[in-house]
Amino acid sequence: MLAAVTRSGAESFVVESVDLDDIREDEILVKVVASGICQTDLWFKRSRASDAPPAVLGHEAAGIVEQVGPSVVGVRPGDHVVLSFRHCGQCSRCQMGNPAYCRRGPSLNLTGRRIDGSAVLHQNGEPLFGSFLGQSSFAQYAVATVDNAIVIDNDVDFAVAAPLGCGLLTGASTTMNVLCPDTDARMVVYGAGAVGLAALMAAAAAGVRTLIAVDPVPSRRALAERLGASVTVDPTTANVVAAVTDLTKGGATHAVDTSGVAESIHNGLRSLATNGTFAAVGLGAPQVTVDMQMMVLKGLTFRGSSMGDCVPAKVIPALVRLYRAGRFPVQELVTAYAATDINQAVADAASGATIKPVLLW
Questions:
Q1: What is the spatial distance between Cα 203 and Cα 179, in angstroms, rounded to a whole number?
Q2: Model confidence band, residue 47 (pLDDT cutoffs 50, 70, 90)
Q3: DSSP strand pairing (252-257 vs 186-190)
Q4: How confident is the model at residue 51 (pLDDT cuts 50, 70, 90)?
Q5: Rounded Cα–Cα distance for residues 35 and 139 (Å)
Q6: Are 63 and 142 contacting, i.e. CB atoms less than 8 angstroms apart?
Q7: What band does 285 get if pLDDT is binned at 50, 70 and 90?
Q8: Torsion angle of the four alpha carbons 44, 49, 52, 57, in this order, in degrees rounded to the nearest 10
Q9: Angle, to 10 degrees, between the axis of helix 218-226 and the axis of helix 194-205?
Q10: For residue 53, how many other CB atoms are within 10 A of its CB?
């Protein structure tokens, strides 16, 4: 099959032929129709060691099930599925409804191999880094399992469905599961990329009336307003803390940062009202200094969130229902590219020309 192979953080992706292993008893073969490009793919690409084996990334896909192993239950050939992250379903965290923090999560998602150490992908007889978040879906086919293949209705556009597997899932779930704003909330989204706009759309769907987006890119601020933001702030020209405090009449009750930029996080915390809650989902800032006097005296909550603390099998169908009702307009974020144009898609995302690039295989 064809796959987008990466050999180092500095090199472009190369679409070329690779070999896919036969599925095992508990595995699912998915013909990938669409695969979103997420910042996590690019962050992981940049962070890999120079001597690491070539890799096939991709972790938010939609496609058609072609084969299932004999022990697979609940997924059948012909089903349309969204692929998300893997989790064991058995550890205490999974049992408590927190699969994003699965105890076996790193070994299931990030080793580049199956749990038994075998490689799913090879090229010229040599193993590739694959099974990325249980799929490696920058490819024509992916091997998945029941825990990360969520069946959806057959008439949902694959390009719309694919980014529900990670980026849009993370943003929306952070609003729905972590922040839980009510209609009277004063919520601020820092970073109006795909994740931030998904958080904003979920808040708009929940009826939040005061909804602010902070982003330096004019086109993204304009899109945020079309998607439900009551007002936007340009951090390159405005004093963010003063602007947000004024627009919220005393500070935000809820905020989410998707940029991972330390200054953005600092501004967000300082802009919170008493007893406000701030969720950080971006991976960029390795360290952030927190004013503990402010945190204590204002009774603030500052927490991180992985995948919006979600259960994909519950949240993805819920987002599809919102999309069908016109209350979660994913199509406004998506730009489709031929899979062979992956490097142009990455460049367009970096420039801000595209919010959510989706590869069509």
A1: 10
A2: confident
A3: parallel
A4: confident
A5: 8
A6: yes
A7: low
A8: 10
A9: 20
A10: 16
CA distance 350 to 28: 33
Cα distance between residue 218 and residue 280, in whole Å: 23
Helix, strand, or coil (residue 214): strand
Q: What is the DSSP string of 233-287?
A: E-TTTS-HHHHHHHHTTS-EEEEEE-S--HHHHHHHHHTEEEEEEEEE-----S-
The more confidently predicted of residues 66 and 288 is 66
Query: Cα–Cα distance between 338 and 269 in angstroms, integer?
Result: 41
Which H helix or E strand runs over 318? helix 312-324
Q: Is it the case that residue 196 has pLDDT exceeding 80?
A: yes
Tokens of 355: 């919010």
DSSP-derived letter for residue 129 is: B
Residue 48: DSSP 8-state: S
Task: Give CA 343 to chain center in angstroms.
Answer: 19
Predicted confidence (pLDDT) at residue 284 exceeds the cutoff of 90: no
Task: Name the 3-class secondary structure at 345.
Answer: helix
In contact, 137 and 35? CB cutoff 8 Å = yes
The end-to-end CA distance of the chain, in Å, is 11
3-state secondary structure of 300: coil
- The owner of tokens 């193993």 is 127
What digits encode the pLDDT tens for the residues 216-241? 999 999 999 999 999 999 999 999 99
Place of tokens 């896919």: 20
For the chain, give percent helix, strand, coil, nearest 5. 35, 25, 40
Structure token pair of residue 12: 């472009």
